[in-house]
Write a structure and sequence with these properties.
DUF2064 domain-containing protein, 204 residues, Nucleotide-diphossugar_trans, alpha+beta
């Protein structure tokens, strides 16, 4: 387990919630307690299906591990959803940090079978959407925090981050260096997915 990993992701959870609340859009939070399924793909698919089952017609999903994501990115996605597009936020590692999709465009079977948590995810997802004849809108590419080297990257490059964030990153880096070990985040432990609904509930 990475030193101070709990503190880092607790900070991330608070930050993404604050950014979401700035948008003024309704939202749902799906932590590990609310997620169901034996695989990452199954848990993610079930979370999205659960929101659509509440009567909503569009949603945006973001994780808690992309510090550079801003409220404006979510609002841009909201706008693009109204243009009947599937919106993807590409991560630098080949994954995605944001998804905006309508209920009519959501294929649960295909979605669950995507190569989740691999560098092939975004490419495979885009190909599946294009095969279904759907329009795709790409957001700006951002880096997420998946491993120890990502912690160092953010500490060195994000000069504008809060002192609290910098201190947490520095503490993690120092502890990792002290044991001279390469450690990665246990995403299964810290993973939290927040779902933000972008449509009005259906009354039918």
């Amino acid at each position: 387990m990475i030193p101070n990993g709990e503190k880092l992701f607790s900070y991330f959870n608070a930050q993404i919630l604050e950014k979401v609340q700035k948008t003024g859009l309704p939202y749902f939070i799906y932590s590990e307690k609310e997620q169901h399924g034996t695989t990452f793909g199954a848990r993610f698919t079930n979370a999205i299906a659960a929101v659509f089952a509440k009567g909503f017609t569009q949603l945006i999903s973001v994780g808690n591990d992309t510090p550079s994501l801003e409220a404006t990115d979510i609002l841009k996605t909201h706008h693009d959803l109204q243009q009947n597009k599937v919106v993807i936020g590409p991560a630098t590692d080949g994954g995605i940090y944001l998804l905006g999709i309508s209920k009519e465009h959501f294929n649960a079977t295909t979605f669950q079978e995507l190569p989740w948590q691999t560098r092939h995810l975004r490419t495979a997802f885009q190909q599946s959407l294009l095969q279904e004849g759907l329009q795709i809108k790409l957001q700006r590419t951002l880096k997420d925090v998946d491993a120890q080297q990502d912690v160092s990257w953010f500490y060195k490059r994000l000069q504008y981050v809060s002192e609290t964030f910098k201190n947490i990153l520095l503490n993690i880096i120092q502890k990792i260096q002290s044991v001279n070990s390469f450690l990665t985040f246990d995403i299964a432990t810290f993973y939290t997915k927040s779902l933000f609904n972008k449509g009005s509930p259906s009354l039918s």
